[in-house]
Amino acid sequence: MTQNKAVASISALDRPIRVDLLVLPGSSMLTLASAAEPLRAANRQAGRIVFDWRFLSVDGEPPETSSGMAWPVSGRHDPSSRTDILALVAGFGAARLTDRKLIAHIYRGVRGATLVFGIESGAWLLARAGLLDDHRAATHWEDFEDFAAAFPNVDLRADRYVIDGRYITTSGASPTFDMMVDLIGQILGRPLALDVASSFVQDDMRAADDPQVNVMVGNAHDDPRLVRAIRIMETHIDAPLSIAAIARRVAMSSRGLEQLFMRQMGETPGAYFLSLRLGAARRLVQDTHLSVTDIASRTGFSSQPAFSRAFRRQFGLSPSQSRVRTGKPV
Fold first, then answer.
1. What is the pTM of this model?
2. Residue 9: helix, strand or coil by DSSP?
3. Which of 32, 64, 190, 260 is deepest in the core (most CB within 10 A)?
4. What average pLDDT score do residues 206-230 get?
5. How confident is residue 286, by pLDDT bands cut at 50, 70 and 90?
6. Which residues, 6+ apart, have CB-to-CB distance to 250 below 8 Å?
7. 3-class SS shares of the chain: helix, strand, coil, % to 5
C-alpha cells in the first residue's frame, strides 16, 4: 500500500486510531473477523492500544450474518460522529440495500471519516451514495458484472483490493485480511505487520492488484499459465472463448493447455469452463429474480433449452426446480 494523505494523517495521530466497523445485514462472519482480528493482533504485538475498534449497526441491533447468526455490536452508528476509519461491511443482498434513509445515513457518516473502507460488498453502498464516481474500486467477483452495469461511472477493477484516495474497497474476506495487514505495515512498520500475519500462520500475503481467482488451483502459483487461463474464463462467462483462443492468450497450444488442466485440475479446460459457467448460473438462479432465459444469456448459452439441459446434467434439477427450493418465484 502506497501511503496516501489519508493514511499519513491517521499514522501521525498521538492517540489510538478510532475504527468504526458498520455491519450491514448479510455480512460474512469470516469477513468481519478478517477486518477486526488483524487490529487486535496489532495492538497485542505493539503492546499498546493502537487501534480502538468497535462493531456498530445502523439501528443498534445485532445484524444477521450470512450464516443466520446475529453479530454482536456495541450500539448504533451515529452518522454525525467523527472517526478516523469508517468501514462499511456488507455481503449477500448488498445490491438490494437501496433504502434512501440508509444511503443518506452512509453519505453523512462518510463525511466524518478520514479513511473509508468498503469491505466485500460495501462498495455497493458507497457507489449507491455516489461516493465512488470516477474512482477505482473492487467488489466480489460474483457481483462484478452487476456492479459494473449498475454503476458505470465507477472504474471497477478485478483486483483483490483497491486504494483510491481515501477510499479502500476489498473483494472478500482474504483480501480484507491482506489489506488490513498492509495498512498496519504503513502505520506501525513492516516488521510488526509481518508479526501480525505470522500470528495467524498466514505465509502467503498477496498484493492489492493481484487478480481475484475464485478457487485455489492446486499448485497454480507455480504455473501462472493455469491461473491466467482460469482468470480468462472467469471474465468471459457471458461470452465464452474457445479453448484454442484461451490457449493462444496464455502462449500455449490447445493440447498443452489440455494436458496442464488434466494434470493439475483432473479435467479438461472445456469441462472446467462449463462448470464455472453453470456455477455462475446457479448463483443467479438462487440469488436473483432474473428469468431463466436471461440467466442463459448471461452465462453464455445459445438458448434456454440448451442451458436447462446442461444445468440438469450438472445439478440434477432444472433451473426452475432449483429456484423453487430457494423459495423464489419461478
1. 0.71
2. helix
3. 32
4. 62
5. confident
6. 225, 228, 229, 232, 257
7. 50, 15, 35
